[in-house]
């Protein structure tokens, strides 16, 4: 229970941050040339000034900035994100439709990056300055420097166009009528390339951190004690070192959550996945500011949620956090 | 000079420096090797690399010389990496220094703002900035700088927190030095080295951010940027994949070079951390 109260307090502390973000972005959007109504008029192929004025009144765009901000925040508190003129639906509905794909992609990429980052980091640390370490570190550096969208395109060229092993885009086969387990497998197949693409840069970061923290923990006194007790090396690594070396890795998940969401904008565009990132891109292009603000609100909530979960995991891994101070 | 010798003792650092010098040489020689506008039509569209000596790297969808775009693109990437990094580091240093030096409510407020920036996915913020202020090369550079300052700010703050009560600062205070003089004249020079080393990370990320933006066609379309070319090549990916492949390698090499140099500097400046 202590864990929850501790993490809960951290969660409460992020509420002012959330408001700060929303106020900041709202004010920023006031600088935008043109508004939703302009975009709608353009889509309709023009219209007279009277219609525009009516529409502006309808969407509350004729009020003062502070009044608009006030009403926006008041609606947000009730989780009403407004109406998307471009999609003709409430913003909350549009986002809810797009959120699952992004969460699926993020979870898959994170698991991929974390798992392989951990293993490669351990292998590199155990053979420090020998060839496995050099090889893994070099590959990690190259992954880190690779632009994800470019990697995605090249993966499409190799795996979708030439080898024809994997689909080049979308979340499922439109022509397939598969249900149950086959539908799941179909989606999984579609997610392979996007997951690799989004996960690659994080894999590079995780393996570097894992390697460094393994090296640090391996030099600590308790490891020497364990060795002198005659424990075998595998047991020392799994039982004693890993748990401690994992702490920085877990911290990193929280820090990288936002970056990963940002990365999904590009990856979802490359693989035309119907996710939040692509929605963000579309609303920028179509100047659908209501939707854009909604996405930013939901992204911030997502990042805060990830950090909340990270706090819980952290407390489990490191009992010192919940006992004592 | 010990630092220089330490730097050159590490092979990856030397490789990184050589690669970086190659990219710089490309940027400098672009105007001389390719006197024509790199975005002007030069020949038949979609000439494969190495098939026509006039276009060593081929031409893109509309018949523009890819080699010329790669060389001019080096200018854009270095410009963006350099200027955006300076913007991010300067904002970060000022905010981090003030927060770390004064502490208390000033620190609280500034760190809340920093946290807000870190909670917001920086690529999303970049999209908003570009949507609002347009995507000329200047606004893109400034926007990339603005989304990248929180990490340097935190680093600077941490340095200031550990330095602000040292003897030399207290001595300065007893001598009656003004806060500004203390912050920028006395503490900052001591806090700077780790921030400078970290700048290489900011630079690498800045180059990647702009290329992603350009790929999505939200950066300046009127400059020869590598990201633009990759986005263009995407339309002909099925058969003419080289249009996207070549500029991607250029980005990879540049980011790799910057990262290697940064790591080399780090190892040379902090020998204790070597091998991490």
From TrEMBL, chain A:
The keyword Membrane applies. The keyword ATP-binding does not apply. It is found in: Cell membrane. Residues 99-314 form the ABC transmembrane type-1 domain. It is a multi-pass membrane protein. Gene3D superfamilies: MetI-like (1.10.3720.10). One of its GO terms (cellular component) is plasma membrane. Keywords: Cell membrane, Membrane, Transmembrane, Transmembrane helix, Transport. The chain crosses the membrane at residues 12-32, 103-123, 135-163, 191-209, 245-271, 291-314. It holds the Pfam family BPD_transp_1. One of its GO terms (biological process) is transmembrane transport. Its main location: membrane. Belongs to the binding-protein-dependent transport system permease family. This is ABC transporter permease. It comes from Phreatobacter cathodiphilus.
UniProtKB/TrEMBL annotation, chain B:
Keywords: Cell membrane, Membrane, Peptide transport, Protein transport, Transmembrane, Transmembrane helix, Transport. Pfam families: BPD_transp_1 (PF00528). GO terms for biological process: peptide transport; protein transport; transmembrane transport. InterPro entries: BP-dependent_transpt_permease, MetI-like, MetI-like_sf. It is a multi-pass membrane protein. The keyword Transmembrane applies. Belongs to the binding-protein-dependent transport system permease family. The keyword Calcium does not apply. GO terms for cellular component: plasma membrane. It is found in: Cell membrane. It comes from Phreatobacter cathodiphilus. This is ABC transporter permease. The chain crosses the membrane at residues 12-34, 78-103, 123-147, 195-219, 239-262. It comes from the Bacteria. Its main location: membrane. Residues 74-262 form the ABC transmembrane type-1 domain.
């Amino acid at each position: 229970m202590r864990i929850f109260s501790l993490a809960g307090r951290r969660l409460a502390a992020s509420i002012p941050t959330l408001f700060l973000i929303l106020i900041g972005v709202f004010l920023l959007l006031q600088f935008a040339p043109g508004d939703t109504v302009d975009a709608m008029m353009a889509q309709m192929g023009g219209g007279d000034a009277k219609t525009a004025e009516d529409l502006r009144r309808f969407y509350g765009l004729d009020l003062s900035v502070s009044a608009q901000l006030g009403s926006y925040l008041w609606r947000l508190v009730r989780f009403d994100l407004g109406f998307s003129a471009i999609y003709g639906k409430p913003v909350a509905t549009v986002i809810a439709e797009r959120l699952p794909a992004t969460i699926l992609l993020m979870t898959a990429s994170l698991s991929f990056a974390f798992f392989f980052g951990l293993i490669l980091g351990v292998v590199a640390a155990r053979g420090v300055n020998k060839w496995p370490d050099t090889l893994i570190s070099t590959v990690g550096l190259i992954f880190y420097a690779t632009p994800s969208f470019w990697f995605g395109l090249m993966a499409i060229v190799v795996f979708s166009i030439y080898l024809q092993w994997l689909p080049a885009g979308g979340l499922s086969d439109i022509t397939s009528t598969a249900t149950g387990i086959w539908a799941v497998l179909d989606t999984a197949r579609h997610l392979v390339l996007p997951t690799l693409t989004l996960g690659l840069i994080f894999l590079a970061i995780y393996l570097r951190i894992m390697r460094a923290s393994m090296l640090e923990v391996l030099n600590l006194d308790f490891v020497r004690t364990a060795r002198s007790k005659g424990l075998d090396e595998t047991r020392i690594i799994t039982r004693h070192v890993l748990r401690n070396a994992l702490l920085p890795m877990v911290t990193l998940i929280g820090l990288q959550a936002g970056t990963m969401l940002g990365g999904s904008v590009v990856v979802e565009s490359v693989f035309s996945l119907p996710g939040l990132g692509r929605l963000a891109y579309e609303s920028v292009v179509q100047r659908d500011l209501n939707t854009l603000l909604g996405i930013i609100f939901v992204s911030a909530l997502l990042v805060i949620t990830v950090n909340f979960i990270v706090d819980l995991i952290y407390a489990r891994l490191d009992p010192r956090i919940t006992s004592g101070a | 000079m010990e630092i220089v010798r330490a730097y050159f003792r590490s092979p990856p650092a030397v490789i990184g420096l050589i690669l970086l010098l190659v990219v710089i040489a490309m940027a400098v020689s672009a105007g001389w090797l390719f006197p024509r506008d790199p975005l002007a039509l030069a020949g038949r569209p979609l000439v494969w690399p190495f098939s026509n000596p006039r276009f060593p790297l081929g031409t893109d969808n509309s018949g523009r010389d890819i080699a010329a775009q790669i060389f001019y693109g080096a200018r854009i990437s270095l410009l963006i990496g350099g200027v955006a990094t300076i913007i991010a580091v300067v904002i970060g240093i000022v905010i981090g220094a003030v927060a770390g030096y004064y502490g208390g409510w000033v620190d609280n407020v500034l760190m809340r703002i920093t946290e807000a920036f870190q909670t917001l996915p920086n690529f999303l913020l970049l999209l908003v900035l570009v949507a609002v202020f347009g995507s000329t090369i200047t606004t893109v550079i400034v926007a990339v700088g603005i989304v990248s300052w929180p990490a340097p700010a935190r680093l600077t703050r941490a340095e200031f927190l550990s330095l602000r009560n040292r003897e030399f600062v207290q001595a300065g205070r007893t001598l009656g030095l003004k806060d500004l003089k203390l912050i920028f004249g006395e503490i900052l020079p001591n806090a700077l080295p780790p921030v400078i080393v970290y700048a290489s990370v900011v630079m690498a990320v800045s180059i990647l951010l702009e290329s992603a933006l350009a790929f999505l066609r939200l950066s300046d379309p009127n400059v020869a940027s590598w990201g633009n070319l990759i986005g263009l090549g995407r339309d002909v990916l099925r058969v003419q994949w080289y249009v996207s492949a070549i500029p991607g390698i250029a980005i990879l090499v540049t980011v790799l070079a910057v990262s290697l140099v940064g790591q080399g500097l780090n190892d040379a400046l902090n020998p204790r951390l070597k091998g991490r």
